[in-house]
């Protein structure tokens, strides 16, 4: 952990900020090709990070910076997945804001932590949908660009009656129209972050530049392994502090079985040998575990939900909540518990961004356990 972040979590479950380094105020910015919905956000950082400004944290707090994807999620509710060549009817359908990057940023905002989102949307209705969802969640969009050369990314989410889902992603502006070199303004936000969150739904070249900039400034980087079904380059792994896969992604990245905890542990050892010192594994209804090279793994059981309606976004909620707890100075065990509580609340609401919990709800759940 960097020396710029220090906070304590009291026995009464109240968060006490003890920030020792202030985040600098940057001049006003403009974004090329920005649409009118984004222009209103071209102000100094952290104008407001909560719908209720009275709950906003100290604007000098080093922010969570999420660099990643934003999608319009097209939900279809079905009883089962169609077989090959089969057509079935959906019970309902709707379009909601999502994408791993936007989900994680929205989670940070709803937890009332200063959060930046760096990403791209198209100049279309889906871009407006995502912008409005992030704004309402209290996320700072000074570094969100609207590009004319590609539509907003979208995803088809097939939601089954048991809450499980299957997702097909169309990259759109998440994968296209990125500059060859990330702007100094974007990288300056990264260098002044408290922690940086990345995923694999944007070009790896972007993730490498961002992670390198963060590492050079001593800013911790968490890489969510979700997204592209390809190996992660050693170059990127060199700049990552914590890699966070689920068990399926862990198996894919290592080529090893991950059915049991012993198998998961063996797969993590392979990642350690690749240079990843900390691996945060999301295990679905089996909870989670943090593996730190040279230490015993920390296990966190799942915090049961009253009813599972939709698991979409639960992993993003877990990762972002863990990051918020970490940057605020909690112990690793407390980070796992805080993230498990947030994920438990997430699966009880349909949609990705709409299901992200408020800080008060997470703390209330922790107090009730």
UniProtKB/TrEMBL annotation:
Pathway in which the depicted protein is active: Carbohydrate metabolism; D-ribose degradation; D-ribose 5-phosphate from beta-D-ribopyranose: step 2/2
Residues at which K(+) binds: 310, 312, 346, 349, 351, 355
Entry annotation: catalytic residues: 316
One Pfam family this sequence matches: PfkB
Binding locations of substrate: 71-73, 99-103, 201, 316
GO molecular function: ATP binding; metal ion binding; ribokinase activity
Region (Disordered): 22-45
Catalysed reaction equations from the record: D-ribose + ATP = D-ribose 5-phosphate + ADP + H(+)
Ranges of compositional bias, category Polar residues: 22-43
Protein's cellular compartments: Cytoplasm; Nucleus
Protein name in UniProt: Ribokinase
Organism lineage: Eukaryota, Viridiplantae, Streptophyta, Embryophyta, Tracheophyta
């Amino acid at each position: 952990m960097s020396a710029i972040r220090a906070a304590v979590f009291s026995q009464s479950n109240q968060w006490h900020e003890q920030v020792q380094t202030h985040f600098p105020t940057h001049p006003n910015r403009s974004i090329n090709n920005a649409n009118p919905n984004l222009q209103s956000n071209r102000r100094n950082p952290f104008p407001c990070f909560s719908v209720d400004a009275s709950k906003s944290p100290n604007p000098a707090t080093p922010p969570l910076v999420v660099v990643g994807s934003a999608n319009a999620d097209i939900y279809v509710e079905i009883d089962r997945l169609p077989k090959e060549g089969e057509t079935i009817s959906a019970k309902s359908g709707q379009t909601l804001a999502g994408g791993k990057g936007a989900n994680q940023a929205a989670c940070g905002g709803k937890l009332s932590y200063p959060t930046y989102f760096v990403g791209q949307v198209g100049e279309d209705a889906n871009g407006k949908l995502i912008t409005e969802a992030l704004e309402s969640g209290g996320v700072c969009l000074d570094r969100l660009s609207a590009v004319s050369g590609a539509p907003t990314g979208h995803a088809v989410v097939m939601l089954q009656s048991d809450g499980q889902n299957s997702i097909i992603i169309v990259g759109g502006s998440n994968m296209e129209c990125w500059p060859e070199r990330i702007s100094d303004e974007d990288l300056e936000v990264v260098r002044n972050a408290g922690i940086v969150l990345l995923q694999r739904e944007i070009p790896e070249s972007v993730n490498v530049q961002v992670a390198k900039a963060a590492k050079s400034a001593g800013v911790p980087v968490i890489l969510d392994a979700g997204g592209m079904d390809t190996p992660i380059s050693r170059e990127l792994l060199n700049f990552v502090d914590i890699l966070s896969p689920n068990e399926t992604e862990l198996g894919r990245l290592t080529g090893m079985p991950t059915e049991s905890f012993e198998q998961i542990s063996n797969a993590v050892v392979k990642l350690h040998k690749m240079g990843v010192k900390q691996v945060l594994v999301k295990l679905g209804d089996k909870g989670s575990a943090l593996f730190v090279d040279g230490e015993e793994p920390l296990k966190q059981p799942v915090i049961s939900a009253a009813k599972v309606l939709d698991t979409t976004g639960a992993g993003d909620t877990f990762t972002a909540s863990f990051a918020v707890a970490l940057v605020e100075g909690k112990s690793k065990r407390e980070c796992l518990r805080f993230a498990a509580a947030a994920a438990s609340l997430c699966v009880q609401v349909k949609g990705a961004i709409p299901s992200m919990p408020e800080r008060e709800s997470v703390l209330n759940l922790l107090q009730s356990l």
